[in-house]
Amino acid sequence: MATIHLQRSANIPSIIRRLMDPLSEILSLLKPQSHISSGFDAGGDWSLHFAIHDDVMKCYAVISGGCWLMVDETDVPVRLEAGDCFVLPSGRPFRLTSDLTLQSMDSKSAFPPAVPGGVVTINGGGGLLLVGSRFAISGRNAGMLLRMLPPVVHLHCKMDQAALRWSVERMREEMRNAQPGGHLIAQHLAHMMLVQALRLHLAEQKSTDVGWFAALADRQIGAAIAAIHAEPARRWNLLDLAGQVGMSRSVFAHRFKEKLGETPMDYVTRWRMLLAAQRLENSDDPISSIAPDLGYESESAFSTAFKRVMGQPPRVFRSGLNAPLEQVRPEFQRPAAE
Hints:
This protein has 338 residues and is an alpha+beta fold. It has two domains: 2-203, Jelly Rolls (Sandwich), CATH 2.60.120; 212-332, Arc Repressor Mutant, subunit A, CATH 1.10.10. Helices cover 41% and strands 18% of the residues. Helix 9 (238-244) crosses helix 10 (249-260). The longest helix has 22 residues, at 182-203.
C-alpha cells in the first residue's frame, strides 16, 4: 500500500521545516494511502449515487466521453468532459450521471467489490471512461484537515497540464496492459495525480476567491501562511506577520480574515494544535516537550489552547477516549469556501 508520508514534526530543525510548503504539510498530516486504483466504463443512460465515505479522498480523470457530477451541499452541477480531472477531498455523497433528470441508483448495486486495476462496465460501456483512485485518510484530526480543502476540485482539459496528463495516460496503460509491478506503479501514479491536481487548482485561484487555497495563492497572505508553517514555535503577533509580507497591520488583518474567515492569530493557534495532535497521536513525546516546541512557555498554557481548539485536554486526546472531533469548537471548524 503506497502512502504519501512526508515526515513532519514540530521539533525538527527549522531549515528542514522551511523546505516543506503548506500543501505538502497538509497532505503529510493526512497520510493519504491509495488503496484502490480502478476504472469505470459506462454507456447509454445511467445515473449512480455514491454514499458518504468518511476519511476518503477520490481523484479521477475522464479519459473519454462525458458526464455530470453533483456533490452534496454544492449548488451547481459540474460537467465533465474528456481530459478533465476532478478531486473529491471531503468524502461527501455525490452523483455521477449521463443525464441530470434521471433517477439515481445506489452505486453499490452496480459495482462489485473493488479490484485494484479493474474496470467496471455499465450498459456495455463506450460513453464514458474514468480512471483514478480512492485514498484512505488516517488520523483522528483528518476531518479538521479536510475542511481546509475545497469540497470539489474540477480541472478542465488544458494543453499546459502535461504532467497531469502524463500520469493519467500512464495509469490507463497500466490498467489496460497488466505487467509485473503494475499495481504498485498505479498507486504511485495516483499519488502524482492527486498532488498535481491540487497544485493546478491552487494555480487557478482568482483574486476574488476565498478559502485556504485562495489564501495560499494570494502572494502576500500565502507568504504569511508559509511563514507560520515554517516556524510554528515563533512568538508570532499581528505586527510581525504583517511585516513579513510588507503590509500594514490593519490591511493584513482584514485581507487574511477575508480570505480565510479567521484571524491570523487564530490560524497560528489552530495550526499549532494540528501539529500537536499529530505528535500526541503518533509519538510518545511528553507534553512538557511538545508545548515549548510549539511556542508555549508552560504546559498549562498549551493545554488550555489545545482544549479550546480541539475540544478536549491533550491527555484525554492522547488516551484515545476522546469525543469525535466533529465536536471541536465551531469557530475552529472552518468550512472550505472554494
